[in-house]
């Protein structure tokens, strides 16, 4: 029973990050709110892998993951965009920001009814996790990016989620699932160090960095073990053929 609950704990952690992100954004702590979305991405990339490693995949886990994703990568990023860009635009700003989770929910529903054999090879449309993570990064750097660019990217990501564009899943590549986005995030950390603003580091960086390191080494040793098992299998196969 405990074994089956481990992947769900990662998923619930992802969901809780989404809730906390909304709470911190409401308090005006945009940096912490954005970083919580990125922490949610890390947890989301680990729950499915843990389920496969422990061989405890279930329909409940899949549905729970979708519910968590719509909060952390749909509602939370759209509220972040509202707080940083559209808060001075009244009702229009609220309504426009709210389109993002609507597109994201449709994207998740379509993904859930897609045959597993197809979803392993490619994604149809940009995954909501990647789209929400990019929006969170934009809000993290919103002081350095013109609002017009943020709005254009926000709209583009919303429509790309429901588009029919086929994007390779890259699930077999031995790097963290969202390494590009997280690398940009770490680049922002280097900028903070270079600019000598350690005192202004958001609190949740101290959670995100160790979590990323754990995720990286987990993925590294997993790929190394997989390669070792494959080489051992090939050696046994050659030995049998020689006999």
TrEMBL record:
Keywords: Lipid biosynthesis, Lipid metabolism, Membrane, Phospholipid biosynthesis, Phospholipid metabolism, Transferase, Transmembrane, Transmembrane helix. GO terms for biological process: phospholipid biosynthetic process. The chain crosses the membrane at residues 20-43, 88-108, 120-139, 145-163, 175-194, 200-221. Pfam families: CDP-OH_P_transf. It catalyses: a CDP-1,2-diacyl-sn-glycerol + L-serine = a 1,2-diacyl-sn-glycero-3-phospho-L-serine + CMP + H(+). GO terms for molecular function: CDP-diacylglycerol-serine O-phosphatidyltransferase activity. It is a multi-pass membrane protein. It is found in: Endomembrane system. InterPro entries: CDP-alcohol_PTase-I, CDP-diaglyc--ser_O-PTrfase, CDP-OH_P_trans, CDP-OH_PTrfase_TM_dom, CDP_ALCOHOL_P_TRANSF_CS. Gene3D superfamilies: 1.20.120.1760. One of its GO terms (cellular component) is endomembrane system. Its EC number is 2.7.8.8. Belongs to the CDP-alcohol phosphatidyltransferase class-I family. NCBIfam families: pssA. PANTHER family: CDP-DIACYLGLYCEROL--GLYCEROL-3-PHOSPHATE 3-PHOSPHATIDYLTRANSFERASE-RELATED, CDP-DIACYLGLYCEROL--SERINE O-PHOSPHATIDYLTRANSFERASE. This is CDP-diacylglycerol--serine O-phosphatidyltransferase. It comes from Gottfriedia endophytica.
């Amino acid at each position: 029973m405990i074994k089956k609950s481990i992947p769900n704990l990662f998923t619930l952690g992802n969901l809780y990050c989404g809730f906390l992100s909304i709470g911190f954004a409401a308090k005006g702590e945009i940096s912490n709110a954005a970083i919580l979305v990125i922490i949610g991405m890390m947890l989301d990339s680990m729950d499915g892998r843990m389920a496969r490693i422990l061989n405890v995949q279930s329909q409940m886990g899949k549905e729970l993951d979708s519910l968590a994703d719509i909060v952390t990568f749909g509602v939370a990023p759209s509220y972040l965009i509202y707080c940083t860009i559209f808060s001075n635009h009244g009702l229009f700003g609220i309504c426009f920001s709210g389109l993002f989770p609507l597109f994201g929910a449709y994207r998740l529903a379509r993904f859930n009814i897609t045959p597993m054999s197809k979803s392993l090879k490619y994604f149809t449309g940009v995954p909501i996790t990647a789209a929400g993570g990019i929006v969170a990064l934009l809000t993290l750097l919103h002081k350095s990016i013109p609002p017009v660019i943020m709005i254009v990217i926000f709209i583009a990501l919303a429509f790309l989620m429901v588009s029919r564009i086929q994007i390779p899943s890259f699930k077999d590549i031995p790097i963290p699932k969202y390494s590009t986005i997280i690398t940009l995030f770490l680049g922002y950390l280097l900028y903070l160090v270079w600019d000598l603003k350690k005192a202004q580091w958001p609190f949740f960086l101290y959670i995100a960095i160790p979590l990323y390191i754990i995720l990286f080494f987990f993925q590294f040793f997993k790929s190394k073990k997989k390669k070792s098992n494959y080489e051992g299998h090939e050696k046994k196969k050659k030995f049998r053929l020689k006999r």
